[in-house]
Predict the 3D structure of the following.
Amino acid sequence: MKTTISVIKADVGSIAGHGLAHPAILKKCEDILAKAKEEELLIDYYVTNCGDDTELIMTHQQGEENEEIHELAWHAFLEGTAIAKELKLYGAGQDLLSDTFSGNIKGMGPGVAEMEFEERPSDPVVVFCCDKTEPGAFNMPLYKMFADPFTTAGLVIDPSMHNGFEFEVFDVMEHKKVKMTCPDEMYDLLALLGTISRYVIKRIRRRDDKEIAASVSTERLNLMAGKYVGKDDPVAVVRAQSGFPAAGEVVEPFAFPHLVGGWMRGSHNGPLMPVAQKNAYPVRFDGPPRVMALGFQIADGKLVGPADMFDDPAYDRSRALASDIAEYMRRHGPFEPHRLPADEMEYTTLPGVMEKLGNRFEDIE
Ligand code: F6R
Ligand code: MG
Ligand code: MG
C-alpha cells in the first residue's frame, strides 16, 4: 500500500495583526477534515498553525496533486476565511488568490509539500512549518541534513546512505528545475542553493533507489500574485531513520539560527528561530522568523504523534543566539543587510521616492 502525505497551508486570517491563526479557524478546518476522514477520503489528519499560517497535515491513498485532496484543503481554507471575515481577523483570506477552485491548489496561493511512498515497517516523518520567511529558508538545513557529514554522521558511517542523495532544485524565477547529486556535485549545488530567493530545493531522493526523502513547498506568493500578498511561509516533509538521516540528524541543522529573508513586511533578514509549536508566534517586529518541527510515525497511513521536536532544552542556546542575532540585526534599522536588497523587498516606496526626486538627479561629472 502506498501512502501519501500532503501538507497544505495558507494564511487565511489571524490575531492580532499578522500574528496567530485564530483557534476558530483551526477548529473549522478540523471539522472539515474529520468529515473527509469519515468519508474515507483521508486516512488521517492533523491541523496546526505556525504563527498566522494554518497547516493541514493529511494522509491518504490518492497520490500527489490529487484534485479531491486539493479541493478539500481549498474548501477548508474558504470556510476558515468566512470565519476570519466574521471575526474581522487580520488578513482574512489573504493567501487565497482566486475565487474558484480549478483542479489543483498549486498556483492559487496556498503552499503544498507532498510525498507518496511505500511505508517501511516503521516510518518516522518530520513536518517542518515556518512563519515570516520564504521557501529558500530550507536550503541550508536540507543541504546539511542530506549532504553535510558534519551534520549527518550517517552519510559517512551508514552504508545505506553512503552513496548520497539527489536534489531537485527549482529556479522559481524562470520556472525551471534541475537534478543534482551529492557528494559529486556538491560545489555546483551550493553555487545555486546560496541564492535562497531564487534557487529552492523542491525534493530530495536517495540516490541508490530514488526513494523520496524530502519535499518542500516552493510556492512564492509574491511572484504568483505579482504584488505583495505576504511571504510564502514554507513547509517541508522529511522522512527519517533506516537509510535516511536519523531524526536527530534531521533536526540538527536548525540548532544554527541562520539568516533568512522575511520578518517585518517580508523585507528583512533575520535569524530562523527553532521553537515549540506554542512559541510559533512571531511578535517582535513581526518576528524573528520561526520554524517548528512535528515528528510523526506513519502507521498504515495513520499519523501517530506528533512529538513537538524543538520543545527541547537542547535548543535553548539556539533560541538565545537567535535573540542576540535579532537584536544585532534590528539595530541596522532600514539599512542592508537587515533590510533586504531592493529587488527582494515585498513592497517598497523606492519607485515613489525616485519619481518625487525626478529630474533633481544630475549626472556626476
Ligand atoms: C510579513 C508579514 C507582516 C506584515 C506587516 C504589515 O510576512 O506578514 O510583517 O507585512 O505586519 O502588514 P500590513 O501591511 O497588512 O499592515
Ligand atoms: Mg498574515
Ligand atoms: Mg505567515
In short: The pocket of magnesium ion (ligand 3) is lined by residues 11, 51-53, 131-132, 233 (CB under 6 Å). The chain is about 25% helix and 30% strand.
